[in-house]
Amino acid sequence: MKRFLLLIIFLGLLVPPSFSQTQSQQSNLDSLRREIRALDQEIYEVQLNLDQSKNQLKKGIFIATIGYTVTIIGGQLLGSNPDVGKTLLYVGGATGIVGTVVLVKGFNKISLKKPVPPPNY
What we know:
Blueprint: H1 2-77, H2 82-110
Helix pairs in contact: 1-2
């Protein structure tokens, strides 16, 4: 009976350290899961930002190309039809400038803020 009682006391002393170790491991796992979720969210935001800026860059290139093409056509028409040529020069130039502004806004979207360096562990 005495041995049985000593065995129960001995096992009772072993249980709390292993229990506290599992709690520590569980908190480490929870911390790791939170960090992974935060990284997933950050990657999603970066991908979304790149997709939006890609679409804006495409629009800007298209608008600027149309505008400068119209400007070139207006310059060609200056000799044969000066009134239409001047109009096309102004309209094409303004359209090209708008396209360039859209392009610049697209480039600005790519880097909205300075990246934060990771913490030292």
